[in-house]
Hints:
alpha/beta
Amino acid sequence: METETPPTIDVRKPSSPVRLLQNPDELIEAMSGLAMLNGPIAVDAERASGFRYSQRAYLVQLHRKGGDILLIDPITALTTPESTQALHNAVNGQDWILHASTQDVQCLRELGMTAGSIFDTELGSRILGLPKVGLGAVVEHFLGQKLAKEHSAVDWSTRPLATEWLDYAALDVQVLPELRDALESALRSEGKLDWALQEFASLPSFQPREKTKDRWRSISGAHELRDPRQLAIVRELYEARDALARKMDIAPGRLIPDSSIVAAASKPAKSRSELLGNRSFSGRASRTYIDLWWDALSRGANTLDLPPLRLPATGIPNHRIWAQKYPEADTRLKAARRVVTALSEQISVPIENILQPDLLRTICFETNLIDAREIAERLGELGAREWQIQQTVGLIASAFTEPKDSDDLQTAQ
Length: 413
């Protein structure tokens, strides 16, 4: 996408008035004023990822054109039924503007906040084909403003919040109404507004993927272990760390890192003192909770419940083995990828936004899909948007029935 980019200016202080709402009475009064304004509400939330176990919101930012920027401390301001109800009355069912909304809707929902509709400026930027879709890059592209982003990874559970942090949080919502208008205009001019609206329609009800039962397998380095007994120790140490982190509301990796768990499982200590002396077993809680870790290691070292080295496969087989075991599906996948890649370049939309990779692999693996109508029906069943089906179904059907030779396909891949 090519648009004329305005000169860039550094912005570190919000131009609209900012109000930090720290008690119920302040919040109730501010929500009354917010409800009197018109237009969509810019919404953002700050969590303490990497510091806390929970993903709760420690600051909620709201802004409507013509009004103040409202920074809500939910820890102290949402402490009465009246203040909570005032917030819900003002924002629930309204049109919201968020950037990368799927990161925030869950923690906002925990506060009882639900949108009527969402305009996602990050997702809209993807559909426009912008090379960088972080808020700072998109704001700089459309509004010519360079936002300071050095506070994006701070511990938002800290109190009191630093003034420069509050400025950063306020700017994140101050820019959203104007950014939304610019994006809507650009999407409309490129004929992509309906595509974006179809994508936005699912956002208010978005649910993150359920956590898998064997989350401990995701520990960095665990895949290198080749002994079920070692994996059992990893599992017990992971679950002990997770329970302690939840109890203390501390990010698990801040207690002991993944590398400590893998190190302890690779060469299991024979005694508590040996574990205590293992320099590879480190972290802020590695010594103060040594009894907890030793008990967990002992359970793993002695349990009869040994986990398999690999979980049984579910769903379609991994596409990396298709060439050897499912050559026809592999040929279809390469052909489909070729035409979707060409489409991506033609319409300037990332491949993963045109059609999710898992979805594309599924229809390529299913051998009973013959014509465009059947492919379109199956895409709809799998959750593809109507615009995605319209853009891809004819190309994929043709690729299935008239695949290129294997050398051409390999080159395209």
